[in-house]
């Protein structure tokens, strides 16, 4: 039962990744691409992390998976923001 | 039916080869660096598949991360600072001596033949010897650590590792000799989101780096990986100009560069007493000594890699005078 | 289960490879950076799955390092792809 | 509890600690450097006495022993190379005191880089492990590039970058070879190589390592980086690079040659042919060179070729003797070339340029430096009683005994070429008829001439000590008695 | 088809590609990158060589060697890049 649930999560997560990539390739401009990618792969990773955590079993592993997910989520949001700033008006220096 | 994992391996291997070709042939230098970083990322994955997580860590952190940053820094310098690529910012090609196409072709065919020969030699290679694993397994209880790779790096072949730290020291001495100057360029404006993230990311990176160092005694990790992750903190500080190296900091920096080498060499020398030879740690202190060495080496690696990224001795450059101190 | 995880890996790898097209085509550095971000996240996902598949919990540490470095590299891309810093 | 020191450890660690100290305390760098060199020389003398008394000595680092650990080993050949390095190094250091006296920044970085270089070279001469050799040649490479670009001129930087590319590529080819050795044997120490059975991967490994090292030695046709790098570096750096650095990679070739699984006739002939190519091409280029230092650098290419000819002089059967001729030439070239580069640097400093055509128009005549240059040329040309003469003689003797007259012909041609190109310089020293200004006959004498002059005298005088030198090199029998 | 075979050939190929780049590349930066590719290729060979016994316990010595190789390579790269930067600055000054 647990395995099926995990598999479902992982499959769904992978699907999101693929969708994000398609968005990166097919969408017309940088902002659409940014929009598609950051959301899709963030969610994809979250789902995969849940799936792997279900399979992993030990508390230590679950904790570390959670940590990885949390960091990636925050980092990818920030980086998405930075890329958007860069795309709009470059990075100013003062 | 073949194992799908084999398909994954083949796909990964092909991707790595394709990336190598792409990185060398893509015209845009920025794209070249991105492709190279991805190449490093995928090689690290391949090494994970070969059950070499330590190597994967080192490659991801140093091979892809720091090297990528160094290349990027240089490209930035060529485009915006020295302006040698200024006019052709997108497609910068810095000429060496122009090589006729025939020579290039001949070289490529030559290299292809060599590669073919190597591939044949590789395929025909029967592993004749048993390898080191039995020896390592037998010696591990006397090494003072539980993780074989750390045991090899810091005990069985500690001499190599010492010399590797010496290479790093030589590199930073050479780089300081080659370039100098204090930059007065303005800091980049990255916005409040970044500020908030930096407050989280910098301490997190320090924690992860220290964790890698500490876990190295029994699991993948160790001085080099930990040092490289800590160097990432330095890279961020330098990039965002939260820290700007000043001439007065040179003393401390020099001390940090030589700390790892000095402590490593001193310990190696001083343990040679009571019938022991150099590098032969007394068993009851082995773990402590190795941790001491690793700690100092980590500091040195972190500071050195950051200094290599900064890429110059922070001295005010006088006009025309080549020889100021 | 293992077969399924392997298939997942292949799908994730393919999404990385597809993203490479974006690196090639560009046109601006921003697109390339975006693709790089995808690679970082996808590599972390691959590592998570591999840690389960190869039964190596140590890979979770590797994943953490990947995540950190992906962020640092991206900041490097953003800052160094523009004028001003020395 | 007292620390037990071994001269082998000291020979590697003293320069390392010296480099650290010189880097931390730039103002005292020169005194630290000289003290370190003196101490290192002492350690080498201690080691030489040990080897003389006991034969080859071993030290298993960490107490593990090969193949798991790394052993240090010293025999006659290693000690000879160590002695060459520290003796030449010491004299070049003294010369550097003077020639870098006006360049504070160069002086500050010369010492740490040079001491790191010394660490690496001493490490190579004592190593018995392939991977350890790889790390050592990288130490040497980085320090040597640092020294090449010490003066920071555009030409030096360009040459240094080429040198860097060649050096890294050579080291990586070597590393790939190490990978193949590991693949085949599962171990990396010399002892493991000795009994290995020949296979495709071992042949690939040896080929990769040889090409990698040839790139570092600048063996024709892989010599492209050397002339510019050695000619544009500052004088003491040139002396170190040409006299010593190249020898480290040469030594590795000499060392590994005995483990080559197929020292076949064809292979040795190929090596000899590359050497012959270097002798001829290097000689021609030296004839055409317009600047003194460039001429000296090209003559290095030719002399390196001669060493390989000496190695191949008598084919497979004669290898047990040929390596000694090669070793003698290595020592002779190390001493004489260091003297010559220092002298050329002195001449350039005094006259202000080193364009050969205009040397005889200079109002200043740095007589002593010119004399030194001539003495060094005598050894490099191979006139008796210099060490170069003994080396060439044993080369030709062996080749004649084996009936390999073509190598004799190559050696003669090389000698004639060297006479021709050195005469260009020597005549420029001697002719006064075109001098337009009054000659300051006794200008340009300086204490700075002492070190190169000593080296040049040694290059000549060592020829008289060739017999004991040869019997010392044989201690530990690098090529085995029964081979 | 075992992973060591696949990645071994991959390593040889990457080394060869790096070699082509090191000899043919026009651009200073690209040549540095080509050399780095060579070192990764050599690393592959060593890591693959570690698979002598069943995959669970690869030989740790080559792993340690490759880590050393990676650190050595980054040092060399840093020096080469510093040379390139310095040289380009000087050349830029010449043109002005």
TrEMBL record, chain A:
Pfam families: PhaG_MnhG_YufB. One of its GO terms (molecular function) is sodium:proton antiporter activity. InterPro entries: PhaG_MnhG_YufB. The keyword Cytoplasm does not apply. This is Multicomponent Na+:H+ antiporter subunit G. The chain crosses the membrane at residues 6-25, 37-56, 62-84. PANTHER family: ANTIPORTER SUBUNIT MNHG2-RELATED. Keywords: Membrane, Transmembrane, Transmembrane helix.
UniProtKB/TrEMBL annotation, chain B:
Residues 197-297 form the Na+/H+ antiporter MnhB subunit-related protein domain. GO terms for cellular component: plasma membrane. It comes from Roseinatronobacter thiooxidans. Residues 15-79 form the MrpA C-terminal/MbhD domain. Keywords: Cell membrane, Membrane, Transmembrane, Transmembrane helix. The keyword Transmembrane helix applies. This is Putative MnhB-related membrane protein. InterPro entries: CPA3_antiporter_subunitB, MnhB, MrpA_C/MbhD. Belongs to the CPA3 antiporters (TC 2.A.63) subunit B family. It is found in: Cell membrane. The chain crosses the membrane at residues 6-24, 29-49, 55-72, 105-125, 156-176, 197-217, 223-244, 256-277, 289-309. The keyword Transmembrane applies. It is a multi-pass membrane protein.
Automatic annotation (TrEMBL), chain D:
It is a multi-pass membrane protein. Belongs to the CPA3 antiporters (TC 2.A.63) subunit D family. Residues 127-417 form the NADH:quinone oxidoreductase/Mrp antiporter transmembrane domain. This is Formate hydrogenlyase subunit 3/multisubunit Na+/H+ antiporter MnhD subunit. It is found in: Cell membrane; Membrane. The keyword Transmembrane helix applies. GO terms for cellular component: plasma membrane. GO terms for biological process: ATP synthesis coupled electron transport. Keywords: Cell membrane, Lyase, Membrane, Transmembrane, Transmembrane helix.
Automatic annotation (TrEMBL), chain E:
It holds the Pfam family Oxidored_q2. Gene3D superfamilies: 1.10.287.3510. Its main location: membrane. The keyword GTP-binding does not apply. One of its GO terms (cellular component) is membrane. The chain crosses the membrane at residues 6-25, 32-51, 63-84. It is found in: Membrane. It is a multi-pass membrane protein. Keywords: Membrane, Transmembrane, Transmembrane helix. The keyword DNA-binding does not apply. This is Multicomponent Na+:H+ antiporter subunit C.
